[in-house]
């Protein structure tokens, strides 16, 4: 028979936390008694430690109704004690679930400890910067943009100035030919670009960095140019672009030092995790067990 006891409150207490956000401690000392639950004293420190282990959003819920949290905590403790007295924690599948959760919790604690202990020397930071300078490359470009719309939009708007994809491509390629014949790039931008804001700035597209979230065709095209060079026509879902590279440089070390430290620390930590993974000795003694479907009886697996 399925239990009908409403235990929705347990979901709040069992939320798995990935952070260790401190809960407001107030003026209470950790050993200050704040309640008695089933005859046992509960201290401020005990409750605060439990709350600290929860995600920020859950902590906020508790702050709004701390008395209700205490009652839920009491019931949760009572139920878990009853389960232990009946030996439910020794029965499957709960026994395995508890062991797995314990492994996950300890593993997360070890990963957090190892991550916090990673250090990077000033020499390592400089070396990382020198070996990965391409990551910190930046470019200043101008862009000529020819937009297009779908046939449906064009039909509904009844605006003859709107171009189809084929028309926009043809126009962009014609303008590129004019640029190759010596036409002034900025003049063409002011006359034809579909981006009024950049056209007002002579086509200035701003500073582009390797780390910027731009489509690869755009980013690769820009960083493949040399100062003064003009790109081929670049298609994007909203239109066609022609880029002219104004200048290309490397962001100074001090401007990206914090970013480099994060990247270097993460690289060291990842290396440690990978080394730890490789050091684990795993030997498969029965390949059939690991065949799909996983853990199926040998006879069933053999017939697949």
Major sheet: 4 strands, antiparallel
Mean pLDDT level: 86
Give start-end ranges of low-pLDDT stretches.
Answer: 1-25
Estimate the strand proportion.
Answer: 5-15%
Output the structural class: alpha+beta
CATH topology of the domain at 136-252: Chitinase A, domain 3
CATH architecture field of the domain at 136-252: Roll
CATH class of the domain at 136-252: Alpha Beta
What would the principal axes of the Cα set say about the shape? Answer: elongated
Give the number of DSSP strands.
Answer: 6
Q: Report the span from N to C terminus.
A: 37 Å
- Discrete helix count: 13
Give, in order, the helices and strands: HEEHHHHHEHHHHEHEEHH
């Amino acid at each position: 028979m399925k239990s009908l006891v409403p235990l929705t409150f347990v979901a709040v207490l069992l939320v798995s936390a990935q952070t260790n956000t401190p809960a407001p401690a107030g003026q209470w000392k950790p050993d200050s008694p704040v309640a008695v639950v089933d005859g046992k004293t509960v201290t401020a420190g005990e409750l605060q430690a439990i709350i600290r282990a929860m995600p920020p959003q859950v902590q906020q819920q508790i702050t709004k109704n701390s008395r209700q949290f205490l009652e839920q905590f009491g019931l949760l403790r009572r139920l878990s004690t009853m389960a232990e007295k009946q030996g439910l924690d020794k029965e499957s599948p709960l026994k395995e679930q508890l062991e797995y959760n314990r492994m996950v919790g300890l593993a997360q604690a070890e990963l957090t400890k190892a991550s916090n202990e990673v250090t990077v020397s000033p020499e390592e930071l400089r070396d990382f910067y020198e070996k990965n300078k391409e990551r910190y490359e930046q470019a200043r470009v101008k862009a000529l943009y020819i937009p297009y719309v779908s046939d449906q939009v064009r039909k509904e708007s009844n605006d003859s100035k709107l171009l189809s994809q084929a028309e926009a491509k043809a126009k962009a390629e014609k303008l590129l030919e004019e640029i190759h014949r010596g036409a002034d790039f900025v003049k063409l931008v002011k006359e034809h670009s579909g981006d009024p804001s950049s056209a007002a700035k002579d086509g200035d597209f701003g500073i582009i960095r390797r780390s910027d979230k731009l489509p690869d065709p755009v980013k690769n095209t820009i960083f493949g140019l040399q100062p003064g060079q003009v790109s081929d026509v670049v298609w994007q879902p909203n239109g066609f672009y022609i880029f002219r590279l104004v200048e290309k440089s490397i962001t100074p070390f001090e401007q990206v030092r914090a970013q480099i430290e994060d990247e270097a620390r993460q690289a060291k930590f990842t290396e440690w995790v990978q080394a730890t993974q490789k050091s684990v000795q795993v030997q498969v003694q029965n390949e059939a067990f690991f065949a799909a479907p996983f853990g199926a009886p040998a006879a069933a697996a053999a017939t697949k």
